[in-house]
Design brief:
With 272 residues, this protein is of the alpha/beta class. It has helices spanning 47-54, 77-86, 104-114, 121-134, 151-163, 181-198, 209-215, 233-238, 243-250, 257-270, and strands at 9-18, 21-31, 36-40, 62-67, 70-71, 87-90, 169-173, 201-206, 218-223, 226-232. The protein has a single domain (9-270), classed as P-loop containing nucleotide triphosphate hydrolases (Rossmann fold, 3-Layer(aba) Sandwich), CATH 3.40.50.300. Strands 6-7-8-3-9-10 form a 6-stranded mixed sheet, with helices on both faces. Strands 2-1-4-5 form a 4-stranded antiparallel sheet, with helices on one face. A hairpin with a 2-residue loop joins β1 and β2 (21-31). The chain starts with 8 loop residues before the first strand and ends with a helix. Residues 9-249 form the ABC transporter domain.
Length: 272
């Protein structure tokens, strides 16, 4: 009998308040190695705060986070640096997440220098060129600045920068919401491909349920700081159990006919 795989990321009872207002209430979930978990909900539901707590960009008030069995919240100094190498973040806005004064080469090489992974300058540049090609750009772009790229290209550069240190977990906070629909599809296809090629785990934050359906294996639904439902993509989209999940899905066309039929059957069964 095969032993169950230990989760790469485990989040337990995460709680956070800002100015006396509770924004996270006992949030718990896991991400398995190689899995893409979608964290969905309306604006203000606590999705981005959860992502920032996982990445230690925001300190939670209570709870526990482990990555590969290591305590993220207790880590400091060298241990925290090692943990941050293992989990990298891709932000929503590629226009503000890239320093406009730096070239693409400098942006991608910087994490390698910070983590001491490649002391040789020529090797760092070669690694940056390889990463650009991995995300669908060219080594010819290395000496250009972010302002000369489109939004989709900038997000590809952000992804290349995040991948430079070979992380195990990619935290994507609404990475396609500021892009045109056609460009969204290109970036989502890139993430799917990278997940397979690099055996990446991804925590994918979004409010667009169609996007989450396309990319994610499992879905966790947040409402007002609480996780109200979690399950496989087929379970959550085909047979949502929480009223909030159903209300979100009612407004979104589901691209899989089998799931759409199952949902209509469920609706008829619950509303005679």
């Amino acid at each position: 009998m095969t032993e169950p795989t230990e989760p790469l990321l485990r989040v337990e009872n995460l709680t956070k308040s800002f100015a006396g207002r509770r924004v996270l209430s006992g949030v718990s979930f896991e991400v398995a190695p190689g899995e893409v978990l979608g964290l969905v909900g309306e604006s203000g539901s606590g999705k981005s705060t959860t992502a920032r707590c996982v990445a230690r960009l925001t300190e939670p008030d209570a709870g526990r986070i482990t990555l590969g069995g290591r305590d993220v919240l207790a880590a400091g100094g060298r241990e925290l640096r090692a943990l941050r190498r293992d989990m990298q973040m891709v932000f929503q806005d590629p226009y503000s997440s890239l320093n406009p004064r730096m070239t693409v080469a400098a942006l991608i090489e910087e994490p390698l220098a910070v983590h001491g992974l490649e002391p040789d300058r020529r090797q760092r540049r070669r690694r940056a060129a390889d990463l650009l090609e991995t995300v669908g750009l060219s080594a010819e772009h290395l000496d250009r600045h972010p302002r000369s790229f489109s939004g989709g290209q900038r997000q590809r550069i952000s992804i290349a920068r995040a991948l430079a240190v070979r992380p195990r977990l990619l935290i994507c906070d609404e990475p396609v919401s500021s892009l045109d629909v056609s460009v969204q599809a290109q970036v989502l296809n890139l993430l799917r491909d990278l997940r397979q090629r690099l055996d990446l785990s991804i925590l994918f934050i979004a409010h667009d349920l169609a996007v989450v359906y396309y990319l994610c294996d499992r879905v966790a639904v947040m409402e007002q700081g609480s996780l109200v439902e979690i399950g496989t993509r087929a379970e959550v989209y085909g047979n949502p159990r929480h009223p909030y999940t159903r209300s979100l899905l009612d407004a979104v066309p589901v691209p899989d006919p089998a799931v759409e039929r199952a949902r209509r059957t469920t609706d008829r069964g619950s509303h005679p």
